[in-house]
Amino acid sequence: MSILKLRVTAIPPVGLDGSSVIGTNLSNQQVDENFLSLEERKLAKSGGTMTGFIVLHSDPTLALHPATKQSSEAAAAAAITAHNAAGTSHVATSVSVAPTGAIAATNVQAALAELDTEKLALAGGTLTGALTLAGAPTVPLHAATKAYVDASVPALAASGVTVTPAGGIAATNVQAALQELDAEKQPNIGYTPVNVNGDDMLGVLTVLEPTTAGLFNAVPKAYTDVASLWRTSNPLINAGFLIWQKGTSFTGSGTTRVRTADAWWARVLTGTGSWAVSRVSVVGAGFDEYGGGKWALKLQRPNGNTGLGSLQIGQSVESLVAEAYSQNSMMLSICVRLKKGANYSGGAVRVLVKCGTGTDQNVLDTYTGESTLLDWNITPTTDYTTYSNQFAVSSTMTEFGIVIQYTPTGTASSDDSIYIQDTWISRSVFDEPTLRVLLPFAHEPFVIELLRCKRYYETSFPYGTTPSQNGSYFYPLPCFVGGVVGPGYYPVNFLSPKRTLSSYTLTTFNPAAASNQARNITRNTNGSGTGAQMLSSLDWFVLSWFNPSGTVAGDVMGVGWEYSDNNF
User: Fold this and answer.
1) Could you tell me the pLDDT band of residue 284, with boundaries at 50, 70 and 90?
2) What is the pLDDT of residues 80-138, one digit of tens each?
């Protein structure tokens, strides 16, 4: 058997060192090395890293073709042109990002802002949470951990803290100073400390006026002085509408004010609308500082009335009392207990407290130097409810008063009204439930309250009767006989001293005719020249008249009278 031997010539004909090997016989080793060199210099189909550029024969035409530089740049330019044509700005807010980690933002701009606000700036800042350090500090300016500080600061005993002796204290350290103050009596300081567990004062204690109300606050004498002005701390008269001397129902129209339940006056703020005030009973009401009295004042727009002016009821406080409050600069509490009628057409019930710098004016008129201490809106319900508020008095006021009003709408139905059961004003320091039980805040007994009301209104007519001509009631007068017809003068004592000798109205009433003349009751004849006047005293006034002709001894003369303060 013969053996076939082959000669293999490597392609390309280049040696591993780059020299030409054409016509050169290669050994088996050289052949192996050349195949290995080819393997290392080719780009495998599975991928790899090029060490030089690739120049393609043209731009790509299929999705998986490699892209040339020029085709990539052309595609980018086209995308920008299309983006601009669509009107979309190249801003970070239009580049969306997915929220991740602690970042909640959904676009680049918001994410940057979020990162900026949540970071701690190198210039310094305030952390909103705890910071845990890597370890204890090793250089002077390192941040220190709590454990490091706790271990570095030694515990101090009171005896080791020095103090400088001052006043009556001779001790030089805190421990000794505390012991010195705690001693029952120390001759070197000259007084006996008060024991917080209870002690007896041996002298006068001066305290500051408390800034907040408190049941156990110590208060200065000025606090209790004001509370005794009228025996109660309520400056309002007939605050629970117990007294109705002049009658139990009243009507009026326009802006002219009219006396109703004694010290309370009513009117329409603007326009020619009408109003009515009447006394109504409160079923089941007790006579106390919370529940109010047995009567309520009903302020109503009459059925069918279309007037839209605000209906007002108000009371003024005398300058004598108002100035006492202003001299003791203070906060006052105000409470109003009311409800709305079944056909109430107004919105909020408005409560105003006004003050002025004049003297004894009526709050429904404009005060001299008027200002508003409280403008308070109450949303009424159909049940009696007590509402409360506070206001500060003016240090310059010489008068103040309260106004309660509502503004109706549309046409009045049968019960377009508010019912006011109680009103009171008191010093805020006493505005504690326990003290309300102990002190008679809102009301006086009937007789005392009646005398307070008679300071401003008094009449010879029976209680609750509206004075009128030809009203049957009269005040008996002496007769002048022997041919003397007068004039006659007769002094009449008031039950309660009056406020003023000037701002009042005294009216006389004929008991059996439509005139104001004194009448001879026996002969049914009228006198003449009847009048009434206060002279020099607040305690009495003088009636004057001429007897009718034919009057003889034993005849009875009589006339009715009414005194009314013009502002209260």
Assistant:
1) low
2) 777 677 666 667 777 788 888 778 888 888 888 888 777 888 888 888 888 888 988 99
With a cut of 70, say whether residue 507 has pLDDT above it.
yes
Burial class of residue 466 in the structure, from the number of CB atoms within 10 Å of its CB (0-12 exposed, 13-18 middle, 19+ buried) = middle
> What 3 state SS string does 179-241 have?
HHHHCCCECCCCECCCCCCCCCCCCCCCCCCCCCCCCCCCCCHHHHHHHCCCCCCCCCCCCCC
| Structure tokens that stand for 303 in this block | 């059925």
**What would the CATH number be for the domain defined by 249-445?**
2.60.120.200
Mind listing the pLDDT tens digit for each residue in 436-446?
333 434 567 88
> What global pTM score does this model have?
0.59
Please list, residue by residue across 332-351, b when 16 or more beta carbons sit within 10 angstroms of its beta carbon and e when fewer do.
bbbbbbbbbbebbbbeebbb
Write the CB contacts of 528 (distance below 8 Å, at least 6 apart in sequence): 517, 545, 546, 548
Tokens of 366: 């404009």
Q: Rounded to 5 degrees, what are φ and ψ at 80?
A: -65, -40
Q: Which residue has the tokens 């105003």?
A: 352
Single-letter residue type at 242: L
* H or E element in which residue 115 lies: helix 108-118
Cβ(233)–Cβ(225) under 8 Å?
no
H or E stretch covering 72: helix 69-85
* Amino acid, res. 195: N
Domain coordinates in residue numbering, the chain? 6-37, 249-445, 457-565
- Residues with Cβ within 8 Å of 30's Cβ and at least 6 positions away in sequence, in order, are 10, 15, 16, 21
Residues forming a β-bridge with 281 = 295
Up-side HSE of residue 467: CA atoms within 13 Å toward CB?
24
The answer to whether the beta carbons of residues 165 and 157 sit under 8 Å apart is no
